[in-house]
Structures are given as structure tokens and as C-alpha cells.
Design goal:
Layout lengths: L1 H25 L3 H7 L16 H7 L13 H15 L7 E3 L9 E5 L8 E12 L3 E8 L2 E12 L1 E7 L5 E7 H13 L5 H13 L5
Length: 212
Amino acid sequence: MKKLILEIFILSCIMGCSSTKNMEVNSFSSDEIKRINSADSLTPMRVFKINNKKDSLLLRTKSSYIKPDPNNKALQLFIKRLHTTVIDSMSMGVGIAAPQVGILKNIIWVQRFDKENFPFEVYLNPKIIKYSEDKQTVKEGCLSIPNRTETLNSRAQSITIEYDTMKEEHKTETIKSFTSVIFQHEIDHLSGILYLDHLDKEIRDAKKPKTN
């Protein structure tokens, strides 16, 4: 009997740890929930900036998978607040990623300049699975890097991405030109990468001695 009770206890602990792990992977942390629920859907969230040490550390942290769930109220509210933030006059941009407001989940909003009326669309767990060899030269800025823009020469002309929707669909799509740059920029944020990292690499590559 004692052996049976012990086995049940061990099994419960294993299941409990597994459930906790899945919750951490698929859901928001308690701090993130608090940040999300701090205001209604019409209130923008604070944009994290690299000139703030704590903000900068978070912006360099890799985000994690979020389970698409149309019944997740926290997720619904966060998506709305993230959209409110990117279209707000104080932080207006053409795209935004969840870590830019302190939420380390794989969620981005992108303005689709390749579609009629240039709509903003949300993407969950976006991943670039193919880059074109052709490059384009673009000027980039970032909501998290105030008062600075730089010209990059290393963005792919077209990309193929896969992503999830709030309807629990998994999709693949090829995106070209300037809109593809926005996707590349925002997806970089999910890995803790800033556009300045690409600029630094371009500068280093330009300084390397050329070989015949």
C-alpha cells in the first residue's frame, strides 16, 4: 500500500512539473499577465527602449512560442493592445513585436503595404524558412531605438514565412519588397536581434581585406 501511494505521489509530481512547463511555454508569465491587464484594449503599452538598461536586456532576450487560442482572454487583450501601441501617435510605426512592450512571446503586427489599403495584420510564431539571394537597400528605424535611422544593404528581397493565426491555422506565405523588410525586422526582434546588428556586420564585412 505504501509503495502504491509513493508511486502515485511521484507520478503526480511528474505530471505537475510537465503541466507547469507547458504553461510556461504556451502562456504568459504572471508578470506579463499583470502588464497586459494593467489597462484596456484602447490603451497603448510602454515601448521598451535600448537607452534604458533593463529594457535593453529584455530586448536582447529570445521570445518563446505562444499557443494560438481564440479563447485565451489575455492573448486577445494583448493582441489588441499591441495593435493600439503601433498605431498610437506617440509610437507610430509600420510594425511591432511583442518584446518591444516587454512581452517575450512570438507575436508581431506588420503593416501590409503589399495589400489594398495597407492593413495591419497580426502573426503568431512567425518564422522565416527561406531568404532570397537578391538583396535590397532600405532605410530602417525602430520604435525601440529613438531618433536614429540607418541604411541597410543586407535585407532579402523576398522571404517565405510560416506562422500561426488566432483561428489556430498554420500558414505559409511568400512576401516581397518593402513589406518583407518589415517582417524581417520584426521577426528579428523575437530572437533578440536589432537592425543595428545587421549594420555592424555590414561594416565589419566592408573592412575585411578582399581576396582574389
